[in-house]
Design goal:
Shape: globular
Distance between the termini: 80 Å
Largest sheet: none
Low-confidence stretches: 1-21
Radius of gyration: 24 Å
Oligomer: single chain
Structural class: mainly alpha
Order of helices and strands: HHHHHHHHHHHHHHHHHHHHHHHHHHH
């Protein structure tokens, strides 16, 4: 009959409907949604710097303000810290995004369960545990492990709610600042003044003191075991509500090792000249790695402290070892610079903010206000969470907040612990910044807000409770 749809037109209508649904899902995914409305890190840094100019008007001459706004980076000699923070992000990614690390993650994924609860819990636990050692190992490794488990589950006919799995991979951000590669703790532990610009006024906080403080160690262990359970509980059970991993978010190309494969020599080995052979000689890599390992062993064996410069050096050694040929490491560090874009330029404005507040001696007043709360460590946590929404780099956040903590005259270690936890929770809310680097769109922003709010509430109750107890 005229006007009756044919199978062909029905098929086209179904495809159009599917495409429309996909476009609607894409528009509501949390990465593009938050990226559309939330200011870039550079905009946030500019806002902080302008605010610092305004609040220092009664204290400083306009010419002094102008000098510090444009040259605070040099006045307080922050170049070394700037470079080290960039290396912290770049070298961490370069050491993780390698086929050898990918092969280890593949072997680990083969041992993990593929039920929905098992996959969510395993992804969350491993992301948190690995993230405690290093943000890139936990974040990148956790996301890739989660996708590997989702694919294995699909091959077995098991449906897994991917939003919960992805959130499990993002949990690394919560504890990445509490372990041995915490940028704030590494800065505070530096007694040379190379990275710790507050060393003359506030002294140092030993890395060991930071790591084993009860307000740090106890909640970290608790979160590794229980935060993934929270995601398991929040995940839907009904098959109609379960959202699988979609192509738009899929990172895996075969195995994790294959996905992280990135280097191919420009010429075939038969055409190599002497320079090509040296650039691709793993024996040369291992000589450099051996020299680096001896240097690290000598430093720590003679009582040297773990600080930001030594972490960066260690990451170079590890990165060379896992990448293999020297040129593979060089190419990956070049690619990994994408992880440092949120700090490279904004740091210049963080430095201006720091310099203006320091020169106007406003940090003393901020410290007095923090001490006047009667709960300075708790205040440090709240302030770090709020400030961290504009300063996504925890090291830069400690640069801006650390002097106020020092001026408050409180015990350093718990205040540092509180500040780093506040930075971690704010990083979770800014997860769209890190997910976008991996070209992930994510899932519906409302569901993400639900997960992030639940994690924030749980972490805050535990951290504040232990800060009050210790």
């Amino acid at each position: 009959m005229a006007g009756e749809p044919t199978p062909a037109t029905e098929s086209r209508s179904d495809d159009a409907a599917t495409d429309a649904d996909s476009e609607g899902d894409l528009r509501s995914a949390f990465v593009p949604t938050f990226g559309k409305y939330f200011p870039e890190s550079l905009v946030g840094a500019l806002g902080l710097a302008v605010l610092a100019v305004l609040v220092t008007v009664p204290e400083l001459e306009p010419t002094t303000q102008l000098e510090l706004f444009g040259g605070g980076f040099y006045v307080y000699d922050l170049f070394a810290l700037h470079m080290l923070l960039i290396l912290y992000w770049v070298l961490s990614a370069a050491a993780v995004e390698s086929p050898r690390v990918g092969a280890a993650l593949d072997r680990l994924a083969a041992l993990l369960p593929t039920s929905q609860a098992g996959a969510i819990y395993a992804t969350g636990v491993l992301s948190l545990a690995l993230g405690w050692f290093n943000w890139a190992l936990g974040l990148i490794g956790g996301i890739l492990l989660g996708q590997r488990l989702c694919r294995r589950a699909r091959e077995n006919g098991t449906a897994i709610h991917y939003p919960s799995v992805l959130t499990g991979g993002l949990l690394a951000l919560v504890v990445a600042n509490q372990g041995p590669s915490s940028p704030g703790a590494l800065i505070a532990a530096d007694d040379t003044g190379l990275a710790n610009v507050m060393v003359d006024d506030a002294g140092t906080i030993g890395m060991g003191e930071f790591l084993v403080h009860p307000a740090n160690l106890v909640p970290t262990l608790l979160f590794v075991l229980t935060l993934p359970l929270l995601l398991v509980w929040l995940a839907p059970d009904s098959e109609d509500e379960i959202e699988p991993l979609e192509d738009r978010d899929r990172l895996l190309e075969g195995s994790i090792a294959e996905t992280l494969e990135h280097y191919a020599p420009a010429r075939e080995p038969v055409d190599w000249q002497l320079g090509d052979r040296l650039e691709n000689a793993e024996w040369l890599t291992w000589i450099v790695v051996a020299i680096g390992a001896v240097s690290l062993g000598w430093h720590f064996g003679t009582g040297g402290a773990l600080t930001l410069p030594w972490l960066a050096f260690g990451l170079v050694v590890v990165g060379l070892a896992v990448q293999g040929p020297p040129m593979a490491f060089r190419e990956k560090t070049e690619d990994a610079t994408r992880w440092a874009t949120h700090v490279a330029i904004p740091f210049l404005l963080y430095a201006a903010t720091f310099a203006l507040l320091m020169e106007a001696e406003l940090y003393a007043r901020l410290g007095d206000g923090l001490a006047a709360t009667g709960l300075p460590s708790v205040g440090s946590y709240v302030a770090a969470f709020a400030l961290g929404l504009l300063v996504p780099d925890p090291g830069s956040l400690w640069l801006l907040q650390g002097p106020a903590v020092a001026a408050a005259g409180v015990e350093g270690a718990p205040a540092l612990v509180a500040t780093m936890y506040g930075a971690g929770i704010s990083n979770l809310w800014l997860a769209f910044l890190f997910a976008s680097v991996l070209s992930i769109y994510g899932f519906d922003w409302r569901e993400f807000v639900t997960y992030a709010a639940a994690v924030t509430a749980y972490v805050s109750v535990v951290v504040v409770g232990l800060l009050l107890a210790f």
